[in-house]
Structures are given as C-alpha cells and as structure tokens.
Amino acid sequence: MNSESCGDFSLSRDTLLSRTHVKLLNQEIKNESRQQLQQQITAWETLLEKLGRLNTQ
Length: 57
Hints:
This protein has one domain. It has one helix at residues 2-56. The longest helix has 55 residues, at 2-56. The N and C termini lie far apart (84 Å). By secondary structure, it is mainly α.
C-alpha cells in the first residue's frame, strides 16, 4: 500500500515536472515569436523609410 502511494506521488511529481517543462517551452516559443515579429517590423520600417526617400528624390 505504501509503495503504491509512493508510485502515485512520483507519477504526479513527473506529471507536474512535465507540465512545467511544457509551460517553459511555450514561453520560449512566445519569446522567439516576439523577437521574430520585432525583426519583421524593423525590416518593414526600414523598407518604408527607403521607399519614402526614393519617393522624395
């Protein structure tokens, strides 16, 4: 009986660790997505700036 509860405990502990790991991975993905979006925005701003300069020449 005692070993079963230990087994249940380790299972739930592993489940919690897995869930935490997934949350951390999701957070990393969100951070990478934000960085990629920021890079794309910067690229668009640069392009629009250059087009604006060409237009005024």
